[in-house]
Amino acid sequence: MTALLRLVGTGGVIAYRALFNWTTPAMFVGTLLVGPLFQLLFFAYLGRQLGVADDGFYITGNAVLAASLACVFGGTMAVSNERRFGTLGHVLLSPRSRTAVFLGRVLPYAANGLLIAVTTMTAAALLLGLRVPLDALPGLLLTLAVAALACGFFGLTLGAIGLRFRDVWLVSNVSVALLLLLTGVNVPAAGLPAWMRITGELLPITHAAEAARRLVAGDGFQAAAPQLAAELAIATAYAVLAALLLKVFEAESRRRASLDTL
Amino acid sequence: MRTLRMIAVGALLHTKQLSRSPFEIATALIVPVVQATLAVYLFRAGGEPGRLLEAAVGAGLMGVWSSVLFGSGGAVQNQRWQGTLEMIMLAPRPPALVVLPITLATALTGTYAMVATLAWGRLLYGIPLTFADPLAFAIAVPGCIIGLGMFGLLLASTFVLLRNANALTNTLEYPIWLVSGMLVPITALPGWTGPIAAVLPTTWGARAVREAATGSGPVWPSLGICLAISLACLALGAIMMTHVERRARAAATLALA
User: Fold this and answer.
1) How far is A231 from A86, CA to CA, in rounded Å?
2) For B37, which residue in chain A has the nearest alpha carbon?
3) How many angstroms away from the CA of A29 is the closest CA of chain B?
4) B252 vs A76: CA distance, rounded Å
5) Domain ABC transmembrane type-2: where (chain A) (predicted)?
6) Contacts of A203 (CB under 8 A, 6+ apart)
7) Between 20 and 30 A from A5 (CA), which of A34, A76, B162, B245?
8) In whole angstroms, how large is the CA radius of gyration of chain B?
9) Which of B37, B54, B70 is best to mutate for the A interface (most A CBs within 10 A)?
């Protein structure tokens, strides 16, 4: 068990450092901290001007969504960059569980996403004047963490698809854009058609954003718990799906000798 | 005349090259439509169904800006990765004239965003494409796109100086959408953003296109200011590009990231 935890934890951290070796503090701050904050401000001012919802709705929803960029792309990179850099074969030759290796890789990305979400929410609350009840903070932190984890596993699922299809970055880009539309973060769910609402229910962020809004409104953890549980279920479902797809596509790529085909 | 021909041929060449990338095509096909859908539902939720054309036009302009920003930001870097930067810089023409067609091509590719959002709005949401001044709209859109292409040259030259230009391009998308009033009226923003908006060609270009579509004001002054600021950007970008090229030649760093 200790060996497995070490594989998941240490392996994840090493892979995170290796795959992010190209980044710099300027790139991190610009892309992952400042970008989501301006996205939040854009929708907050638009929503304010159209009278769709108050600032709290946009700050909370977009803060949860802020985690998605790093986590979805990170999860995708965890698989597809191995292939791009020509190291996927080495990983798949490992005598250890590849499921544990890849699932473990999501953890650093989720931690990164949590940091981004917390930073975005804090900055936006200070800029736009949102007051969050102190007793809601632990629940809010937990909600953001679960959302980040769900996004990470969602990204890993997309990364697994990248073992089979070439243009996985296209899928990631479109998925991130769809999260803006379908998760009810910017358009209240009641304003969306039924099929969009149902699709949104199956995506990460939707339930976490709702839970976070209840916590910020001061409704208490009990009121947010069902939505938080739903987000956790979504995270688990994507983790299982990612593991399954990785197994199937690994076997398929061995059989067809298409492991390093780009 | 030869210069204009070179710019036109160069822009066509780079547009063709951009159109060969499945990733570029699919991203350009899908993302603006998602943005337009989001804008339509937001305006509907806000009880502003009468402003749906404004939402579609605004989303289209956002797509044009994204194309210019990422295209211009990556203009020099992409040539470097493709191994063609040295050949471009060796051309017996000022470097600005060689890079300008690339930025114009990204703006031209971005026109798809405008066409797609309007077509999407018409076909799916029944938004009537009744422009207040169709002729002015037909002139304002390409005028705005050419202006943004020229602004792109300044961005491209600035980004050459920065080691991590990607960080800036990733950061600049939403702020320019916001400050230029593409969907959010500038009057709804804090007062200190006004002077920033006033010096951006995107603000005046978006204003001209919106005025032509909705009849909310005179189009030509806005378009004129957009093109005047863009020309100033072109001149500044040309100076910077020459400076950067000479510095890179002297330091032998042209091919280095």
Assistant:
1) 34
2) A181
3) 8
4) 37
5) 22-249
6) A154, A178, A179, A182, A183, A234
7) A76
8) 18
9) B37
CA distance A184 to chain B (A): 10
Q: In angstroms, rounded to a whole number, what is the distance separating the alpha carbons of residues A242 and A159? A: 8
Question: Per-residue pLDDT tens for B51-92?
Answer: 888 888 998 899 888 888 888 877 777 787 788 888 888 888
Structure tokens at B212: 């032509």
pLDDT of A190-201, one tens digit each? 889 999 999 999
Any B CB within 8 A of A186 CB: yes
ipTM of the complex: 0.87
**What pLDDT score does B257 carry?**
47
pLDDT beyond 50 at A119: yes
pLDDT < 70 positions in chain B: 161-166, 255-257
Given A46, A170, A187, which is nearest B183 (Cβ)? A46
Please tell me the distance from the alpha carbon of residue A67 to that of residue A152, in angstroms, as a whole number.
Answer: 9
* pTM of the predicted model as reported, rounded to 2 decimal places: 0.88
